[in-house]
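Pipeline run #58 for the internal structure catalog. This entry was flagged by the ingest filter as a single-chain record with no existing model, so it goes straight to prediction. Upstream metadata was stripped on purpose; only the residue string is passed forward. Reviewer on rotation: M.T. Logging verbosity set to normal.
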Amino acid sequence: MVKKRVPDWLNSSLWSASPSVTSDDCRRYDSKPSTPTPPSPVGPPLPVPPPVVVVVQEQSPKSEPKESVDDVHDASSNSSAEDISRQAQFLAELSKKVINLRELRTLASQGIPDVAGIRSTVWKLLLGYLPSDRGHWSSELAKKRSQYKHFKEELLMNPSEITRRLGTSTSSDEESKLEGSGMLSRSEITHGEHPLSLGKTSVWNQFFQRVGMDCHHHQILFGSCHVVLDCSLFGNVHGMSGTKIVGLMKDTEIIEQIDRDVKRTHPDMNFFSGDTPFAKANQEALRNILIVFAKLNPGIRYVQGMNEILAPLFYVFKNDPDEENAASAEPDTFFCFVELLSGFRDNFCQQLDNSVVGIRSTITRLSQLLKEHDGELWRHLEVTTKVNPQFYAFRWITLLLTQEFNFADSLQIWDTLLSDPEGPQETLLRVCCAMLILVRRRLLAGDFTSNLKLLQNYPSTNIGHLLYVANKLRVQSSTG
């Protein structure tokens, strides 16, 4: 049996070395280029030839600590001439009456400037939240934001709150009588307003019934996973049956899990963590989005780690310099979160784990991709050292690499993921394969323990270089 020859481009020291700071091919991904270059004509993403001169430098075996990021926007303070040029390109494209999404994807694949709200607007366009016709933006945003407000009122506000609000408008006369007495006003709770009431006119019983109907009505939000929905947990039963009690207990468990996970979201960032009113408000927004999503998609509900996928979206939208957009970050994030997860929905359906579309199948595709591009490394990992890709790739794929790199680098990777017309999943797999190739020398020299430790705690790397290698894999696949 003839051993498959490793492609010459993989044997190059480029894949295990940091790129030269003057190489044009990698500089197109970097956030702070060193020298200005004129803007290139807009067109489909093309591979860039490898640099002629490369400084060979083996990556340090020791992983650098991931930085604490409180304000990613600080990176843009020393803008170069090329930064300004790229900003001008984006602003010119975004100012058109009808935006050319093909050209926008090309620009975004090279990295999106983190200034002037450009990334916020571009992500909304790439995720399909904003239409390409700018004339429709105001009406579409108003419609979606109003819809989210309705979701919250229907799914997050319980009848006691509704009763209280109604009571404030009908009991003004009674309150005026109590103003001088020092007594607090109190709405009378009738039998029909008691949470355990079984009456057909009970606002609580109607609330539980409505939640059940809402789940059936809105499950289209998350696509084909409705085949595994079990909305019996949410009502459509008469009386306080065992099914309803189980449903309420399940809701409580999910909300408690969401609360725990939200509090653990990026503890190194003041934006998400801490006791400040700002951080608390951001945590509350994440909590609201995840609870609404779980109730509208009972087939998937909430899966641990969704908070990590939600965080970059909310961070980018909340930091939009436009005050109206920043104030509406919660509804905007909700709909973009739904759109993003729709491309990965099968990875979150436990019932589909072992199917051809589930997470295990996705991990198998990553294994096949590595085998196709670097058979020697694939054989060493999976045959010789028996490192099952599930041991490291499960987190990489399900959390979209948010835990493998610092926050600013994750945003840069997401620019490329969201800009791919084939969808983020295929690009994600290529980036994961590139991650393996970049440390191939250390992996080939390692055993099971050292390799697993390396891949579960991936070392710091040049993100521009990583994205260049991932793009190279795309070209090799299309031409091979």
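catalog note: DSSP finds 22 helices and no strands in the chain.
catalog note: Residues 155 and 292 are 7 Å apart (CA to CA).
status: ready for reviewer M.T.
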